[in-house]
Amino acid sequence: MQNPTSIEPRIEKTRRPNILLITADQWRGDCLSAIGHACVKTPNVDALARQGTLFRRHYAGAAPCSPARATLYTGLYQMNHRVCRNGSPLDARFDNLALAARRAGYDPTLFGYTDTAPDPRGMDANDPHLTSYEGVLPGFTSRQLLPEHEKQWLSWLRSRGHADAVSRDIHIPVGAEAGDISDAAPAYSSDETQTAFLAGEFIRWLGDQDRPWFAHVSFLRPHPPFSVPDPFNRMFKPGEGPAFARAANREAEEASHPYLAYAMPRTGKGAFIHGATGPLSDWNGEDFAAIRAIYYGMIAEVDAQLGRIWQALKDAGAWDNTLIVFTSDHAEMAGDHWTLGKGGFFDGSYHIPLVIRDPASGATGGIVDGFTSAADIFPTLCERLGIEAKNGLDGRSLMPFVNGGSGQDWRDAAFWEFDFRDIAGGETERYFGLKSNECNLAVIRDAQFKYVHFAALPPLLFNLSDDPMELDNIAGDPAHAAIRLEYAEKLLSLRARHLDQTLAYTELTEKGPVTRRPS
């Protein structure tokens, strides 16, 4: 960790802070100019980092959206919260950051979405909330919902004179055909994006607050469809940025592991370019370069709206009493390994940004190189607000780093999980001949090696020191058998340590219950 700059605290720590949790969906952790990206510029995230703490090696706990957010919101690894896929219900017994904030006296208010499928037990089978995974995390008051259908934003666009904003076809750039990869601009302006709409709703709400508040602004972008208005649509050129991490061709990538041979041909283009049809394999390297340039522009667009929020907080006199957490739920492959989206085991899907700025801290400009997890956000807020979670947590508080110190006995590796079962259709299970609970993987990754353990498929081992692009699987190399065993044991021990500890630290004795949690 770089030594932060020490300054006098700007507010008293005894004063209850405002809390602003911002997530930008599918933002890669390497896409920050603060850590030296080759072309992306993020001046407003950088400004936040200069006044706070930047976590360079921060990782999602799972993918896609619902599993990733379950880890973020509950502080639990997937092995404990068991949100396996989009649509897997979050067990109602688990505590989360919104419920905990209520116990601290806040009314947690949501702008956007949380992708939380409700626990169906105790609900009527005909309840329409059981027909979508885009529910709201228990504990939040919804101020402005904006799920993936974006109807609220489309209605707002119509009120601004966009009569054609009746469907998500509004994302098709002007002059382009549905499905085209185009850097042309859509019909709406940079002041009319989904990000601008949601930022505006938060700013309007902010003006009415007269007591400490807790807000979660959950931006959909830079999640696809990949389209962004001027000037961001042509801010970056195809080919700008770092080299793609990928094999020589798609066929070599698919042949490198049975999971990739299954998943890559089944990824469709329509999830990324609005109106596109057919498999992702129809696109070549030039197509991926063009898409990545648009993705970079979408990041710049979100960063611009973050600057608008920073200024609104200052104008409202709230800047010096607002703890800000900026992060993402998961990342984006962005053409690495000949694919887009998230999932699987590559770093591109899981390395995400994290900046925490606490104005009560006397430390600024810190950069943390230790491995941190989305599971650490809830414990961090618990410590900062002086509350306890109602169940065991897998994450650890990041407040020692935020306050300019180092985490004692901090973890030396990242850990994440991915479950690729298909409960509704069963396609995955039929393809591999596996049971649903065998369709999963877990990753342990430190500074040198990365080990990927599949429940019922061959493992993977990468020497990241020599192979940072994860192209050479050495799991079957006899010369690395001892390393593979060592990391398999590390992963097994990690999972054993993190089995649900809610009541494991309590024992009933003749004198009654005794609870002894580790310090």
UniProtKB/TrEMBL annotation:
GO terms for molecular function: hydrolase activity; metal ion binding. Residues 17-387 form the Sulfatase N-terminal domain. The keyword rRNA-binding does not apply. The keyword Metal-binding applies. The lineage of its organism: Bacteria, Pseudomonadati, Pseudomonadota, Alphaproteobacteria, Hyphomicrobiales. Gene3D superfamilies: Alkaline Phosphatase, subunit A. InterPro entries: Alkaline_phosphatase_core_sf (IPR017850), Sulfatase_N (IPR000917). Keywords: Hydrolase, Metal-binding. PANTHER family: IDURONATE 2-SULFATASE. It comes from Rhizobium leguminosarum bv. trifolii (strain WSM2304). This is Sulfatase.
